[in-house]
Specification:
The chain is mostly helical and 145 residues long.
């Protein structure tokens, strides 16, 4: 009997990986803001330092999580389509993703320690940075596959 394989279009995998990477980057941004890693520190004029360390760490953390999230999601989606991931591993990864996003939702519902306009600019910057890095990670993963 001939073996049939199912392939998803690369654009569908790229879109799913980008969405996952952006959501993870935004979750890390919200969790980081709760613990003092403030992207909005870049736009505050009352600080004497040229760039606060917390803002630099937040930028790098969001970029890394967006890239790694996009890369691993694209790799996992490509492997899942061909049936190379066991069912238990899929369930575990889905559970971890739900827990991270639930934690970010809980943090987002609390009052923000960041001023409103600065928080909005930081959120938009995190969204754009996460989207670009998730795209790069997913693109590299699909080129490798």
């Amino acid at each position: 009997m001939a073996e049939t394989t199912t392939y998803f279009p690369r654009r569908l995998i790229l879109a799913g990986a980008m969405i996952s990477g952006v959501l993870l980057a935004l979750a890390v941004h919200m969790l980081g803001a709760r613990y003092g890693l403030d992207l909005g520190g870049l736009w505050r004029s009352d600080l004497r330092q040229s760039m606060p360390v917390g803002a630099a760490v937040a930028w790098w953390l969001i970029a890394t999580v967006g890239f790694v999230g996009g890369y691993f999601t694209a790799t996992l989606m490509h492997s899942a389509v061909s049936g190379q991931i066991p069912q238990r591993m899929r369930q575990f990864l889905i559970g971890v993703g739900v827990l991270v996003l639930a934690g970010a939702g809980q943090v987002a519902s609390a009052p923000s320690p960041i001023p409103t306009i600065s928080g909005m600019l930081a959120g938009l910057a995190a969204l754009c940075l996460g989207a670009v890095m998730a795209f790069c990670g997913a693109h590299f993963a699909l080129r490798k596959a």
